[in-house]
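EI: anyone free to look at a 88-residue chain?
SC: sure, send it
EI:
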Amino acid sequence: MRVIPKPGILNKLQEDKKMSEQEFADFLGASRSSLWRAKLPVDDNRFSLGQDVMAKILKNFPDKSFEDIFFLEKLSQVCYGGSADDAG
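SC: here you go
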């Protein structure tokens, strides 16, 4: 599983604060590029959301719960041939 932001939530939080990209990044204590990567669709290879950025978002929005901003996405596991019986 991985933690991802709810679609559009970071933009909404920024709009509610009436801040530019740079102002919002500064408010969070994150770089503008980290914020940009966190706002990308999760299926974009450039998407990235580090634990440090998640912590900064939660710290700066104490009225929001983890579940208000993020959710857990299940990742499928791919088996590359063989079976558990083959191990050993």
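EI: Helices lie at 9-17, 21-28, 32-39, 51-60, 66-69.
SC: 👍
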